[in-house]
Amino acid sequence: MFTNNISVVLIVFFYFHCYMTHFMIPKYIRLAGLALIVAIILFFLLESDLLMLPVLNQIQVPIGNLLFWLGMIILAFISHPFVKTNGGLRNKIVGILALVSVINALLWGFVCFILADNWYFEFSNTAVGFRGSSAAFVWFVGYSVFTFFYPLLIFVLSIIVNRMR
Fold first, then answer.
1. What is the largest CA-CA distance in the chain?
2. Rounded Cα–Cα distance for residues 158 and 161 (Å)
3. Which pLDDT tens digit goes with each residue over 66-86?
4. Does residue 21 have a pLDDT over 50?
5. Residue 36 scores a pLDDT above 80
6. CA separation (Å) from 75 to 30, 36, 127?
7. Number of Cβ within a 10 Å radius of residue 18
8. What are phi and psi of 87, to 5 degrees?
9. b/e for 80-101, b at 16 or more Cβ within 10 A?
10. Could you write out the DSSP letters of every residue in 50-105?
11. What transmembrane ranges does the database entry give (predicted)?
12. Closest Cα partner for 147 from 82, 68, 72, 77?
């Protein structure tokens, strides 16, 4: 399982490095990321028992949550190369929004951990305080939906901005 963690970190680092150095992510890398997203979706649709196994025993992060988090990050990175940051003010604003999308995806797991008070993202009506309560679950769902659809919104917005020229 240690090699899975290394590969996830290397993939995320490579995408982040390509983004930060303003290189266009090569087509084969985008396709590999898209294939990974499809594999993650199939993995979740098959409801494999492996999704609940912890990757790191010390902090109890389930493989399923880590894969979903990785999918959110990949989605943000895949949608970013379609944003043209050179040109006018509109393109620069969309580029900044795309950067916010990537940062939001990178922080998604940590924010959800804070809301749930555990890495399994389990919520309870008997929780004392806000963390882990049913009210926190509403925020968790809303934030997760936002994190999923925000890169797609940026992608559509970049298409509209590029056609307005």
1. 55
2. 5
3. 888 988 888 888 776 666 656
4. no
5. no
6. 10, 10, 33
7. 18
8. 115, -145
9. bbbbbeeeeebbeebbebbbeb
10. GGGSEEETTTTEEHHHHHHHHHHHHHHHHHGGGS--SSSHHHHHHHHHHHHHHHHH
11. 6-23, 28-46, 66-83, 95-116, 136-161
12. 72
Question: In the block, which residue shows the tokens 């196994």?
Answer: 53
Domain spans, the chain: 2-163
- Structural element, H or E, at residue 106: helix 89-116
Contacts of 81 (CB under 8 A, 6+ apart): 24, 25, 30
Check residue 152 and give its pLDDT: 86
Q: What are phi and psi of 62, to 5 degrees?
A: -70, 150
Residue 18: DSSP 8-state: H
Q: How far apart are CA 104 and CA 145, in angstroms?
A: 12
> Whole-angstrom distance between the N-terminal and C-terminal Cα of the chain?
49
Strand partners of residue 56? 61
Q: Using CA atoms, how far apart are residues 82 and 145, in angstroms rounded to an integer?
A: 21
